[in-house]
Design a protein that fits this description.
Elements (H helix, E strand, L loop, with lengths): L1 E11 L9 E4 L6 E2 L5 E7 L15 E8 L12 E9 L5 E3 L7 E3 L9 E5 H5 L11 E11 L10 H12 L6 E5 L2 E5 L1 H6 L3 H8 L6 E3 L4 H13 L4 H7 L5 H17 L2 H14 L7 H10 L3 H13 L1 H5 L2 H6 L3 H16 L13 H10 L8 H20 L1
Length: 399
């Protein structure tokens, strides 16, 4: 999915003077519009259960819930799902607390979110030593990720061709190259490896005595997925599961292993599909954004990197003052790239950039496919490739 992150700020005015159990946070209209025209509001409950008419405890927990007014869409009117987290800020604007959720909570159009956050006790907010209230007002931000489908459909070859290639893959007869992977031997036809110009074919060409080629740093299951894709052009079922929303920690880790192996062995189509499937399935948080950035950068997954970068930029001030920045300092080049994106976002100016530089990775890949060019590589390579193609076309038109 394409992630469009944004922060919606709420101010709960004169919080110290409020005594009722439930208060609606926001401006005088109670609803706050985001950059894309969606309306949101926060409800704060001073009792454990919303709607409970009993007297609140002397020192209640502050229970925070999000609600939206209708359909959810991005700036182009594309319907989107919304994933959110709350950020309680102190009087300086720094993060005082946020939910320790493994993943952001989801909210469906026209409903109250099905997840609430018991932030802190009311006494903690009122305690002047904590410096939470600013001029008596309570400030809570909602970080929202609007996620729209990439629209990609995993390619499926005609059933008859798949069936024949699957039979060939499973048939050990006439296979003339073998790979030793984690104690198992997997065989293949050299001529099939040649049709997909991968690193595996070059390995096979360099082997003269027929001994198995040693493959390290992957598992037999992942390597079998690589070979099956080369034979059939079909993607592993785990990628289909990810695109269909069937996610688990194990499935995501397997997808990362597929990307790692496909990247190493030059199986581009499989790597791109896994990149898209992972973006469809994942949700980024403050806890995992650095891991995703480092992984995507190392494995040349520009779509994944673009999504993680968008999240980082939307919360840059918070993240640069957290442990996340310590992780990223191990890659000065990556941190520099992020600083450039933050500056671009702050200035809202790209006047001196080529039009191609403003395109998303999804749009770049689409345009490159249209003119029959390679769609592998990081975003800078994709931009350069499209620029060269467009300028060549312009030259042809002027001659």
């Amino acid at each position: 999915m394409s992630i469009k992150p944004l922060i919606v700020p709420f101010t709960f005015r004169n919080y110290a003077g409020q005594s009722s159990f439930i208060q609606t946070v926001g401006s005088s209209t109670a609803w706050v519009d985001d950059d894309y025209g969606n309306s949101w509001r926060i409800n704060i409950f001073h009792v454990g259960t919303p709607g409970d008419d009993s007297e609140p405890p002397a020192d209640p927990m502050v229970d925070v819930r999000l609600e939206n007014s209708g359909d959810i869409s991005d700036n182009e009117g594309v319907e989107a799902d919304a994933y959110f987290t709350f950020i309680l800020r102190d009087a300086r604007g720094s993060v005082y607390a946020e939910p320790d959720w493994d993943e952001p909570a989801a909210v469906a159009p026209g409903t109250t979110a099905d997840a609430s956050w018991q932030a802190v006790r009311r006494s903690e907010i009122l305690n002047e030593r904590n410096n939470i209230l600013r001029d008596g007002n309570l400030h809570i931000d909602v970080h929202i990720q609007l996620k729209e489908s990439l629209g990609g459909v995993l390619f499926k070859a005609p059933p008859s061709i798949v069936s024949k290639m699957e039979q060939l893959f499973e048939d050990e007869e006439d296979k003339d190259v073998s790979f030793q992977v984690g104690g198992e031997t997997l065989s293949a036809h050299k001529i099939i490896l040649k049709k997909d110009p991968s690193v595996l074919f070059s390995f096979a060409e360099e082997t003269e005595d027929g001994s198995p080629i040693i493959i390290n740093d992957t598992t037999p299951a992942i390597f079998r997925m690589i070979l099956r894709y080369i034979y059939t052009g079909c993607f592993p079922s785990l990628l289909v599961d990810l695109q269909d929303g069937w996610t688990s920690r194990n499935t995501v880790e397997q997808c990362k292993d597929v990307i790692d192996a496909a990247n190493r062995f030059g199986v581009v189509g499989l790597k791109l599909a896994a990149d898209e499937a992972l973006v469809e399935a994942m949700t980024i948080t403050a806890k995992n954004v650095a891991d995703w950035l480092i992984f995507a950068d190392a494995k040349t997954c520009p779509l994944l990197k673009e999504q993680a970068t968008a999240y980082f930029v939307s919360r840059s001030e918070d993240l640069l003052n957290s442990d996340t920045s310590n992780q990223l300092r191990e890659s000065p080049r990556l941190l520099t790239e992020l600083m450039v994106e933050i500056a671009r976002s702050a200035n809202h100016r790209r006047d001196f950039e080529d039009d191609e530089s403003r395109l998303s990775v999804k749009e770049l890949r689409y345009r490159l496919r249209e003119v029959g060019l390679d769609v592998d590589g990081d975003k800078e390579i994709l931009v350069a490739r499209l620029l060269k193609a467009n300028r060549g076309q312009q030259m042809d038109e002027t001659e």
